[in-house]
Design brief:
CATH architecture of the largest domain: Alpha-Beta Complex
CATH topology of the largest domain: Spore Coat Polysaccharide Biosynthesis Protein SpsA, Chain A
CATH class of the largest domain: Alpha Beta
Number of strands: 39
Shape: globular
Largest sheet: 8 strands, mixed
Radius of gyration: 33 Å
Strand order of the largest sheet: 3-2-1-4-8-6-9-7
Helix content: 25-40%
Oligomer: single chain
Strand content: 15-25%
């Protein structure tokens, strides 16, 4: 129940009784003791406006709680500026503080408590001048607190004090002096923004009819701050033709979703403006000024450095980091054009460079690394380097997102079963990365030893026209590194940097290599590699693989319906989602459903599964999303696809799609949705016609963030656990512990911080440090690099922590031998490690958050995600044999409910159901079954009556109705022609807007499955004089509601 408030509420109304009523209904929930209503008079040039003004004022008379209602109504129109300012002058002549709403601003009920608590907290702080309920950051710039401080005063639902409002000066008498002093340039520190606001303030000073910019001026002139909430608390429902100012319904600020404010409030420790949030506001809502960007390496401020002509036609800005010196371009919008050829046309040194690098790499690996291991060339181009290294006897594999492999075919990353490598090489690649840290993290999935070549920025800090390596004419080099930038990258991932100071650099976990490593290699002061060439072996391998692939791809043409699955995720990452899709494809390959599937294999990165049909296509390029959509649509058209599914967030242009969602982490944790990892997700969600969620919790989050999605459009399909996870025997556990030097019982933790630190692993370490017997345990950590973050190490003094990279087989044994898996996550879309642990007989300690209870059931101990003492108690409890035995038994039983066979079956049936639904429906759908063989004149008259009544009813409620017309047994073309004539008649002679309010769709010869899918979405069958009685009497329609033609008035 929403609590009552003590603070007076001021309500500003005008001429919209309906929106006023909605606002008042929300105010009614908190029952303020005093309501002060401000209303302007009608404009003389607007006929009928007085009546609307009076109706709006009449709504206020509906206050039905114990409340003092005071009114300040104007008989003449004062205009926005004078009416609001004089009205608030009146309000603050009567009360010390107030919450202020306008007649089109609907707050979440928690908005009132939020305002009331902060009015109390900051009542005497002169720096705080207002409290707003608006958050226009769209999920960006989260702080971890309930609110932040801003220089921008948003006023769609706000609160203030008399002491602050007294600083409002409608005449802006200080403006001329401040304008001439250059005050705005100093205040905003951006000439573009200063010029923009100078025009705004000048216009308002000259009399422009608005009060809110006068208030902003008061805020800035008095060095005041506005408090803005971490979530949006107010929705403006007033966009449209009836509005005075906000007339564009398509505005991104119209009807923004609101969320509840959590209590107790988390208060920021200091009062300082949130610079990143304010910069975003300035850039997106006001001047568009581009404030200092952040370095992609160290996140310090980067400032304008130079401009160069890219591809001989684009003026592109460079920015240089104030800390590490890294140089980056502005957002590289030109990359699609730049990569029309993956290898730059001017790269005439390609063969020489590959020979040189092969010599360097061979000596480095042979002398300082396990040269019998496997190696990966990341961004391998045409495959020249891989072929040279294999000819020298080194087991190298190739990977490139964009370039065709010409010389190392058969040795792609997808051909390698184990994806862990002794070393990754990345030559002339890093300067191409638009997201260097993201690419680095992708590389680290494969190895912690990385040999790269990229030219370091010379010490004289040359501009683009002074140094050849910028190569703006090719347009592909978007990042130039310094030694300090590479050192920062190395430290971030617990690696050591060795460099020749120019172009060769090694990032590695090996701290014991000679500092002059590259000098020794270049001088030939290392052993000459002596390995047997792999040429002969490779020949046999390639021949064998060609034969095998011919067997795999020799599959009959697919059956209808054809389902195209974009295997793009296999190109991008090798994480859990790749495991999900590999498991699903493997299950579908066992049955007839495989004949409906075509997997799009992005540059030979998809795993080959016998029984699945593949089509190899170009790699996904995050900088060419529109081009990718065109390509996917072309393929869907060529293949006759009826449905498209992406393993990630790619979409075609028109082919219907199903989207599988694993979590809503970026949206809920305020991550940057423009990051390459998430770009396109929102568009994919809005494009999809159906959704598969891996848990009930993910489905709830999806609907909360996208409330327009219907529950019926979501299918829950829990992930499964693979057969590779089962309890290890004691002998396997002993071997595992001996291999890694684990001498004590151990707790197992998996996964690193997670974006936004939602993995919450620190809770385990804080609790572990409190155990009296912690010295009797080791900790095994997977997914953390080679050592823990520094802030965690202080909790493990005197204990051994083993940071390991484990494949599935060793992970199975690690689970089986652990005292428990500790998984204190704040949020999971599913929580696959819980399933894996249960399958291996490993007890679980986790949190009751998000989907985790769905997965763990009774097979886990649950602890709140901020309860250190509770976690410590759980770590003690799990040591009891009886508790462990119970949880292991519960887990082994529960995991039986999660199988890939069941998941694959649910998704298969969902796909077939979606394909079976022959039309796209609205929320209001009706069916008619005309008797097409009847007299045409009577049929036209009957259809005219039905269409007219439905359209009138829809117009009155401003809803769109779908009328489904069954044309079975009749020519659909003739049926369409007849109905089109009726539509034209009604539009021309009755003035009805059928295009807006009535969707007419024809169905013909549906099978029973299609009808079964369609009927639950239909509100009723309309019976009329020329209905096909034989069709209507089918058992199929017996449970469908029926309305008569005469009952259609007001039916919508």
């Amino acid at each position: 129940m929403t609590q009552k408030i003590r603070t007076p509420v001021a309500l500003i109304i005008f001429k919209r009784p309906e929106t006023t009523r909605k606002v008042l209904n929300v105010i009614r929930k908190v029952k303020p003791p005093k309501l002060l209503v401000i209303a302007d008079g009608a404009r003389e040039d607007k006929p009928g406006e007085w009546e609307k003004c009076l109706q709006a004022r009449e709504v206020v008379r509906g206050v039905d709680w114990d409340c003092e209602v005071l009114t300040n109504y104007s008989d003449v129109n004062l205009g926005c500026r004078k009416r609001v300012s004089s009205g608030l002058d009146w309000v603050f002549s009567l009360v010390e503080k107030a919450i202020i709403l306008e007649d089109d601003c609907i707050p979440h009920p928690s908005f009132f408590r939020y305002c009331e608590e902060l009015l109390e907290r900051y009542g005497e702080n002169e720096r705080i001048m207002m409290i707003s309920g608006d958050n226009f950051q769209f999920g960006r710039n989260k702080t971890g607190y309930s609110y932040y401080f801003s220089r921008y005063g948003h006023c769609w639902g706000w609160a203030t004090w008399r002491r602050a409002w007294l600083k409002y000066d409608d005449s802006m008498k200080k403006w001329p002096e401040l304008r001439d002093s250059g005050w705005l340039n100093e205040f905003l520190k951006n000439s573009q923004a200063a010029a923009y606001w100078s025009k705004i303030f000048q216009a308002v000073y000259d009399g422009f009819d608005t009060w809110d910019y006068v208030w902003v001026f008061a805020l800035w002139n008095n060095n005041g701050f506005c408090i803005l909430p971490e979530v949006n608390l107010v929705r403006n429902i007033g966009f449209g033709v009836e509005a005075t100012h906000t007339i564009k319904r398509e505005s991104i600020f119209a009807n923004m979703p609101v969320a509840a404010m959590d209590f107790p409030l988390k208060h920021p420790p200091i009062i300082t403006p949130h610079i990143e949030a304010d910069n975003f506001t300035e850039e997106t809502q006001f001047s568009g000024a581009f404030c200092p960007t952040k370095c992609k390496i160290c996140h310090s401020d980067s400032y304008y450095f130079a401009t160069a002509k890219f591809l001989q036609k684009y003026d592109v800005k460079y920015y240089q980091c104030s800390n590490c010196g890294f140089v980056q371009t502005e957002n590289p919008y030109w990359l699609e054009e730049a990569y029309s050829e993956a290898i730059a046309a001017s790269d005439i040194g390609l063969l020489y460079r590959n020979n040189f690098l092969a010599e360097i790499a061979a000596r480095l690996i042979f002398n300082y690394f396990n040269h019998e291991g496997k190696f990966l060339d990341y961004g391998g181009g045409y495959g020249v380097f891989v072929r040279l290294m294999r000819d020298r006897g080194f087991d190298f594999y190739w990977y490139d997102k964009f370039c065709r492999n010409l010389f190392a075919t058969g040795f792609e990353l997808s051909d390698c079963q184990d994806k862990k490598f002794e070393m990754v090489t990345a030559f002339e690649v890093f300067e191409h990365f638009n997201n260097p840290l993201g690419e680095m993290e992708n590389i680290l999935q494969y190895s912690q030893n990385i040999l790269i070549s990229t030219q370091l920025l010379p010490k004289n800090n040359p501009k683009p026209d002074e140094w050849w390596y910028y190569a703006p004419h090719e347009g592909q080099h978007v990042g130039i590194y310094t030694r300090k930038a590479l050192e920062i990258m190395a430290r971030k991932y617990n690696l050591k940097l060795y460099t020749d100071g120019e172009s060769l650099h090694l990032l590695t976990v090996n701290n014991n290599l000679p500092e002059n490593l590259f000098t020794l290699i270049k001088r030939g002061e290392t052993k000459t590699p002596s390995k047997e060439s792999l040429l002969a072996r490779d020949y046999e391998t390639v021949i064998s693989r060609i034969a095998q692939r011919q067997r795999i791809t020799r599959i009959p043409e697919p059956k209808s319906p054809i389902i195209v699955i974009d295997g793009v995720f296999f190109q991008l990452w090798r994480t859990g989602i790749a495991r999900v899709w590999y498991s699903l494809l493997r299950e579908w390959a066992k049955g007839e459903f495989a004949s409906h599937i075509l997997v799009l294999d992005r540059v030979n990165t998809a795993p080959r599964i016998e029984g699945i049909r593949y089509r190899t296509i170009a790699g996904y390029n995050v900088n060419n999303i529109e081009g990718d959509r065109r390509l996917l649509q072309q393929i869907c058209d060529e293949e006759g696809a009826e449905l498209f599914i992406s393993t990630y967030y790619t979409i075609p242009q028109t082919t219907p799609s199903i989207l599988m969602l694993h979590d809503m982490i970026p949206e809920l944790f305020g991550l940057d949705l423009n990051h390459p990892s998430w770009r396109g997700k929102t568009e994919a969600i809005n494009y999809a016609s159906h959704y598969i969620c891996v848990s009930e919790n993910t489905a709830r989050d999806l609907r909360r963030i996208y409330p327009h999605i219907r529950e019926t459009d979501i299918t829950i399909a829990y992930n499964g656990v693979g057969e590779e996870f089962y309890p290890a025997n004691q002998e396997e556990i002993i071997r595992f512990k001996h291999k890694y030097g684990i001498h004590k019982p151990y707790f197992l933790i998996t996964s690193a911080l997670g974006e936004g630190k939602y993995k919450n692993t620190i809770l385990f370490f804080q609790a572990f440090s409190k155990l009296a017997n912690r010295g009797g345990f080791d900790v095994v950590a997977t997914g953390f690099g080679n050592q823990l973050p520094p802030e965690w190490r202080k909790y493990t003094t005197g204990c051994s922590v083993h940071c390991l990279y484990l494949g599935d087989e060793e992970l199975r044994v690690a689970y089986s031998g652990a005292v428990a898996l500790v998984y204190p996550s704040k949020y999971e879309g599913f929580g696959l490690p819980l399933l894996e642990a249960m399958a291996c007989g490993c007890p679980i300690i986790t949190t009751p958050n998000a989907s985790l209870p769905e997965i763990g059931g009774k097979a886990a101990i649950y602890v709140e995600d901020d309860d250190v003492e509770g976690m410590a108690e759980a770590l003690c409890e799990i040591q009891k044999p009886s508790v462990r035995e119970r949880l292991i038994k519960e887990g082994l039983e529960r995991v039986k409910q999660f199988s890939w066979a069941n998941t694959a079956s649910i998704i298969r049936e969902t796909i077939l159901d979606v394909v079976s639904l022959p039309v796209k429906l609205t929320d209001c759908n009706y069916l008619i079954l005309p008797y097409w063989q009847g007299e045409e004149g009577k049929l036209i008259a009957a259809l005219t009556g039905i269409l007219e009544k439905l359209t009138v009813a829809a117009t009155q409620t401003d809803k769109t109705v779908t009328l489904i017309i069954d044309a079975s047994g009749y020519s659909e073309e003739d049926a369409n022609s007849l109905v089109s004539g009726v539509v034209m008649e009604l539009m021309l002679h009755q003035g009805l807007d059928l295009e807006k309010y009535l969707d007419i769709v024809f169905v013909s010869d549906l099978n029973e499955r299609q009808w079964r899918k369609l009927l639950p979405r239909i509100k009723a069958r309309i019976s009329f004089s020329l209905e096909d009685v034989q069709k209507a009497s089918r058992d199929l329609f017996k449970d469908l509601a029926t309305v008569g033609e005469e009952e259609l008035d007001g039916i919508v």
